Amino acid sequence: MTRNLNIGLISVGWMGRLHSRAYLATAHHFPELPVRAVLRTAADPDEGGRRHAVEALGYEQAVVDYRDLLADPGIDAVSICSPNFLHREIAVAAARAGKPFWIEKPMGRSAAESREIAEAAASAGVVTSVGFNYRHVPAIAEARRLVRSGALGVITNVRASFLADYSADPGGALTWRFLQERAGSGVVGDLLSHGIDLAQFLVGRIASVTAAQGTFIAERPLPSAGAAGHFSRGAAGGPVGPVENEDYAAVIGRFDSGAIGVFESSRVAVGPHAEYVVEVYGTKGALRWDFQRLNELRLADDRAGYRTIMAHPGYGEFARFQPGPGTSMGFDDLKTIEASLFLRSIAEGRQLAPSAADGWAAAEVADAALASARHGAWVEVPAVTGTTTFDTA
C-alpha cells in the first residue's frame, strides 16, 4: 500500500523547482514506489518564490523561514536547494529535526562543513541524498558495470574534463558564487565535484592529488538586486569587485587501485557550453561519455577502436523513460531517478541514493586539490566514515 510522504522544499530557485518536478514525476516513472511524494511546504524569504511554489509547483503552503518548515511534525523529508553558504546550517538543523534530506552539491563550502553535515545525518540516523545527478545517466550505469565487471581489464587511467562557459563573459555579475565566504571554492566545488564523484563511482576512491588553479577574470561588476544565477549580468559601467575563488583547476590523482586520474574543469572556457567528459582506460578496453551526448556511450573493447552505442532499455533506468534506443532522455530525467532513490531510501530505511558521506568524500578530494594548488605538493586524501555508495551501490 502506497503511503504519502510530505515534502518540504527550502529555496525555490531553479534547482528547487527541478526537485519539485522530479518528486511529482516519480509517480509516473516509478509507480511501484511504496511512498508518494506530496508537496507540502516551501520555504523562501522571497515573496515571488513563495508565490511560485504555491501557484505553479502546487505546494500546499509557503513560509518565509526554513525553521518553521523543519519544526512542522507533518514534514517527512526536505530538499535543501539554498546557496552553498546556508547548506551546513540547514542540513545540520534538518538532521537534528529527524528529517531525511536531499541536498545539492557542493554539500558544504569545505570538507570540514561536509563532514559536519554527514556526521549529523549519521548521528540522527536519517537517510540522505546528494545531487550527483550524472551518476544516474543510463550510459554511466553501463560504464560502471563494464568497469566493475573487469570487462576493460585492469584500469590504468581516468580522465574527467568538465568545461563550461557560464562565467566566460566578464560582464557576468559578481554573485555569491564568486565569493569565498559564500561559495567556498569556485569551479572545483561547482563543477569538478561532479567529475570527482563520477570517477570514484566508476573506478573507486581517489587517494592523493596534486593540482594547479587559476582565476582569469579577476573582477566582475557588482550584481543588481536579486541576481544570483550562473548567467546573471552586472550593470555595464558600474562598480566592480574582486573574484575570490578559482575559474579553472587541473588535478592529477592516484586511486587506491593504483590507477592515475587527470581532472580538469573551467567555468570560463570559450567554446564548450557543458562539455562534461569522463574517459576510463584499461588493459582490455576503454570507454568515453560526454554529457553533451548524454544518451551515447563510446566503447572500445577490441583493437578496432571506439564504436558508439546508443543507450537502450538494458542500461540503468532507461526503460522507465523511453521505449528504445534513439529516443533521448534529458537532464530533468536524471533528477527524477535521483528523487526515486531518495524516496526508496526513506521507505526502506537504507541508503540507496548518493549519500552525505559521498558528498563528504568528494569534498575531501576537492579540499586536497585546493591545498595542493596553494602549496605545490602531493596531498593525501583522508578517508571518510559512514555509508558511501560509490563503492556499494
Neighbour order of strands in the largest sheet = 16-15-14-13-7-12-11-8-17
Helix fraction bin: 25-40%
- How far the N terminus sits from the C terminus, by CA atoms, comes to 26 Å
Spell out the CATH superfamily of the largest domain.
Answer: Dihydrodipicolinate Reductase, domain 2
Radius of gyration: 20 Å
Query: Any idea what the shape is?
Result: globular
Total domain count: 2
Order of helices and strands: EHEHEHEHEHEHEHHEEEEEEEEEHHE
Q: Give unreliable regions as ranges.
A: none
Q: What's the pLDDT, averaged over the residues?
A: 96
CATH topology tier name of the largest domain: Dihydrodipicolinate Reductase, domain 2
Global structural class: alpha/beta
- The strand count comes to 17
Main sheet record: 9 strands, mixed
Features:
10 helices, Dihydrodipicolinate Reductase, domain 2, six-stranded parallel beta sheet, 393 residues, 2 domains, Rossmann fold, alpha/beta, globular, single chain, nine-stranded mixed beta sheet, 17 strands
Short account of what is shown:
With 393 residues, this protein is of the alpha/beta class. It has helices at residues 14-29, 47-57, 66-71, 84-96, 111-124, 138-149, 180-183, 187-203, 331-348, 356-375, and strands at 3-10, 35-43, 61-63, 77-80, 101-103, 128-130, 155-164, 206-214, 219-221, 240-242, 248-255, 260-266, 274-282, 286-290, 296-300, 307-310, 379-380. It has 2 domains: 3-133, Rossmann fold; 134-329 and 354-380, Dihydrodipicolinate Reductase, domain 2 (2-Layer Sandwich), CATH 3.30.360.10.
